[in-house]
Each structure stands twice: as C-alpha cells, then as structure tokens.
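Attaching the record inline, Q. Sequence:
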Amino acid sequence: MQKCVPGGYCTTEVTKKLQELFASNLAAINAKLHKNWATVFVNHAYSQVVAGTNYLGLVTGGNVDKAKVTIFYPLSGSGNDPQVTSA
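Structure, as predicted:
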C-alpha cells in the first residue's frame, strides 16, 4: 500500500528503471553535490505528480555518502529531458 501526503510525495517502488534514471543523471547529481561519485544507488524513493513527475531518491553514492536527490521527469511528448532539480 502506498503512503502519500496529500498534494505531496508518495512512496514509490525502487525499480530497475528508476535506478537507471538516477544513474543516467549521475553527472548532474555530482555537479549539484560537488562530488565525484562513480556510482549512485537509490535506497528509497518517493514520487510526486506535477506537470510530469518529481522523483525524490534517498541515495548512496560511491558506496559511502548519502544524499537526497530530486529528479524531474517531464511528461512524455514534451520534448524535455529529465533534470536534477535538487541534491
């Protein structure tokens, strides 16, 4: 059962696709965090539907450091790429 905050984030299953979304944005995550992680692993995830979807991931980078990272995934057909909005 999903736990949701009305108008806010809902718990989301950490799938292979979600792991790949964060991994494919590793350079932007590193830039926001001023890190040089070679890997990123999503431990827990939450989603919020807006004009697309915000994915908030509680992540581990470089097998040691932990951080909160938000990636905005736009609606399909928008022509926009996912982007790291906070870390």
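Residues 10-86 form a domain with the Nuclear Transport Factor 2; Chain: A, fold (CATH 3.10.450). The helical segments are 16-24, 26-33.

More tomorrow.
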